[in-house]
Amino acid sequence: MYDVIVVGGGSAGAAVAARLSENPATRVLLLEAGLDWRAADAPWEVTTPNPIPIIHQREFQEKWQWPQLHSRRVAGQDQRFYWRGKGLGGSSMMNGQIAIRGVADAFDEWASMGCTGWSAKEIMPLFSVIEDDLDLGDRPGHGRGGPLPVYRAPPETWGPIDKGLRDAALASGYAWCDDVNGPDGEGVACYPINSRDLRRISTNEAYLEPARGRTNLEIRGHALVDRVVIKDGQATGVIVHFGGQGTQEISAREIVLCGGSIHSPAILLRSGVGPAAELKAMGIAVQRDLPVGQNFFDHPLFRTTIKLHDDVEPKDKDTRHTNCCVTYSSGLDDGRRDMILIAFNHRGIGNPGAIGAGLYRAYSRGTLKLASPDATIDPIVEENMLSDPRDMARMVDAVKRLAVITTQPALAGIADWIRLTDTDLTLPQAAALPLHELEALLRRDTGDIQHASGTCRMTGFDMTDGVVNPDGTVKGIAGLRVADAAIMPADCRANTHFTAVVIGEAIARMMMRKQDSAAPAVAMAK
Predict the structure, then answer these.
(1) What are the C-alpha distances in Å from 263 to residues 89, 116, 201?
(2) How, if at all, do strands 353-359 and 80-81 pair?
(3) Which residue has the higher pLDDT, 334 or 190?
C-alpha cells in the first residue's frame, strides 16, 4: 500500500509529490492523466519562450491539453475551447510562463474568511522558497536557489507592443515599477518569466526531474483517475483507467487531488462528494453533500487589437508574446492591485498585436457540473463572468484608461490602426459610447485568462459552507485532500501558476508536520 497517492502532476501536484517524497519513509504514487515526459525529451513547443503554438495549434492541443474541454465565458456567449495542460507539469507546461506572486492583501483576505494559516505573513515566504530569482534574489523578500527560475527580459529585447505600452503608460501618468513581485509592486513593469536561458521550466522539470531517483516515488502517466474509493467516510484508494491497459483500484492511506480547478472537482463529484441533488440526478451515490463546483472564477480579459506597421511586426516564431504589463488599483469598491494591462506582441506570428485589460480581483462566480459520470467526458463549465456589477464597472473603467494610453505617440506611432477587438471602434470611440452599449460590447467579446480557481472552496475548520478545510482536507471525508487552485476562497489577484505551486508547498508542509507529530505516538505504540 502507498502512503500517499497524488492525483495530477501539474503546478501544485508536482510540488506535493516532490516534497512528500523527500521523506524516504513516505511511499508516494503520482498519477498523471497525460504524458510522463522527461526534460531531455521536451519538444520545441514546450520549451519555446513563445507559448502561442502550444496553446492555439490543434495538434498541440490534442497532445498536451484536454481537447474536448469547453467553457462559456459570459452568459449569452457560445462555449469555446478552454486551455488546461495535460501531462506532467500540467498547465505550467503550456501557460504564458508568467512568474507573478499572489498579492499579500489577498492572502490576508483569505485568513479573514476563516482560512487559518493562509495570511500574508505565513504564505508570502513560500514564494521565496520556490523561486530562483536571477535578478533580485538577493533582495529581502525574494529567493535564490529555489526550483523555479525567475527571469526578466532586458528591455532591448522587448517586442514592439512591450515598448509601446511601457512608454505610453508612463506618458499617461503610471509609475515605473522595477519589481512587480515586491511589496509595492504596482505600475509599469517587466514581466518576471518562469524560464532559464529563455527555456520554459515547468514543475515537471523543476520538482519531479530532480526527484526521479527516489525509490519511494513512483510516477505513472496515462493514468486517468475515475474516482476516489470512499468507505464509511474514509478515502481508501482510487479507481484508475490506464490508457489501453484496463482499470485498476489502487489503495493508499491518503489521497491528494491536484487535478486543478476543472478536474479535481470532477473527480470529487464522480466520487459522490458534491451537491446531493446533482449527484442523485446523475445516479451517483452521495457520500457527502458539499458545494463542489459552485465557486468557479476566472479573470475576465478584453483586448485592444493593434495592427503594427510592417517594419516593426515580429517575424521570429520564438518571439516572446509578452514582456511588459501595467498593474494598477482601480480604486472602485476599494479595488487594490485589482487590474492589469498586458502587452501582446502578437496573437500568433503574422497576426496583429494587442493590449489586454484584465480584472485580477473577480467577484463574479460560475459553476462546474458533470456532463456525465464517465471520466472521459469533461465537465460543463459556466464561468458567468461580468455578472457581478463590480466586475463590469472596472472593465468599463479599463476601456476609458486605454482610450488615453492608446492615443499616446508611443503606440499610435507604430500602428496602422488600434481598435477594440472585433469592432471598428477606436478606444476613445468605445469609451464615449452610452454605458449600456459599452457593457453590451464587453459582454459579447470578453474572454478569460484561463486562471480557473475556486471550485473546491476552502473555509474555516468550523465552517460548513465550503469544500475543504485550511489544511486541504475534504470536510467530512477522512484521508482525502485537495491541494491546488481549486481551494482558493477568493482571488489571489495575480496569474495563478505561482500561487498554485505555493498551495502545493503549503499543504505538503501541513501533511509533513502531521506525520512528524504522529511519529512519537506510533513509536510508543510499537
Answers:
(1) 15, 25, 23
(2) unpaired
(3) 190
